[in-house]
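WARN no homologs supplied; continuing
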Amino acid sequence: MTDRNVLVDDEFEVLIVGSGPVGLTARALLERWGVRTLTVERHRELSPFPRSRLVNMRSMEIFRGLGLDRDITETAFGPEFGTLRFRDTADGADFAVARWVGVSSPVPESPALGVVTSQDRLEPHLLAAARAPVRFGTELVGLTEQVDGVVALLADRASGATTRVRARLLLAADGAHSTVRRLLDIGTTGPGALADMTTVVFDADLDRWCAGRPAGVYFLANGSLIPLYPEGGWAWIGPHPEAAGRTAWPELLGGLLGAEAPVEVARVQRWEMNAFVADRFGHGRVLLAGDAAHALPVTGGLGMNTGIADVHNLCWKLAGVLRGWAAPELLDSYGTERHPVARRTLRQAVANAELMFQVQARRRKQLRSGAGPTARVELPWSERYFAQLGLLLGVAYDSGAVLPDRSAEPEPPDPAVDYVPTARPGHRMPHLWLAPGRSTLDTFGAWFTLLTPDPGAWRSPTAPSAPLRVEPLPAQHTGACGIGPHGAVLVRPDGHVAARWAAGPAGPGVLHEALTAVTGT
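OK structure emitted
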């Protein structure tokens, strides 16, 4: 801890380190709460590389709440690209086909549809979603914790000039090699570096093999082929080839793709595929999110989406502490709630990779047995691709920010296997249509939401201790919510159920007491 009188050049409520999708989503969420933020990014601009491919339905639900879902969908691929095709070569026949759940077609459990889009198309939408300052080419090089905040030493990477910024809270979304995590000496647990990978962005005419059979990803014998944008462009992603230093990339790509087509290479990026979870998601007034908190293998598209869910969980808590309607101890619930999710998601991502290896092993065995190139391979998973529906929508939290439920409703099954909608406290509030085009999820925002078929019964003479809105719940949905005609469900700003009452309030202070308990005030 240091003297509060240290000289600084500027002050903000929250300093966000990293302007990837996770940092930019946090910036947009916090601006909705009126929180003053500064985002710093060591690179000179948003990433020019495609990186993440899938914005899943849960992330699109979050973006729907920010009013961004339509803009993101307009620049993304159509639903038909929610297909995954397995081929020996780019010009070969499909020997297996799978689909991302909630992308290729809607599912009744969500009002949103996931999309396939490149990260460099997503990030501009997120950047435009808020007006708070972003300093590109600025790197955090030092960090000092204080009793009531942090002081960050920032360096301009072009000039070398340094500035000091004080913030009451710091959110680190600075990637798998997080400077903030290193400065805090927070360790990681997991396999670590899994593979030395390379992404090659290129242009080639592959339409005669791909246009009639669209896919978000073509899994080949050597790496993966992905379409970049609806108007064109491709990327190859795979283990770094040993011959890369001896052979020109256009020639090398031709061999890797197995297709005879002229290739014009635009960019090459070498990177490391990591798999770990940070031992802690924060220290004092510093919180980790996204890859800084957990690095996940790319298989299944879980990494970026898990990070977006992190900040959706965290930002309302940051706002509550800053605005005084939540105790600082509420921030402890972030790690309590999200750390188990990260560990479970890492296990699933590793399992996804193993499933992919099984597909290739079955294919090799099939070809050795004399099968022709058009023979099909049975995929080793169900139609709900990689069992992600439960992993995305079935996340449940158990912390002091959730009140225990005394109902007799049985616990839903393992969310890694399937998803059963439930309004039990801790779970994501189920999607139910309140009116044409208006979901229960559309009632959530920068406030707590009380859903009840009897709003009059829940009027209180005491002002709520936190932002609150009461929404009428149609009687036909009471059964799905596990409540009676006078019951209610209290939903947190992140869409997870904070408390549930099967019957009407036992007294005039029930709701006030629940909000106080959840926020720790």
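The first helix runs from residue 21 to 32.
OK
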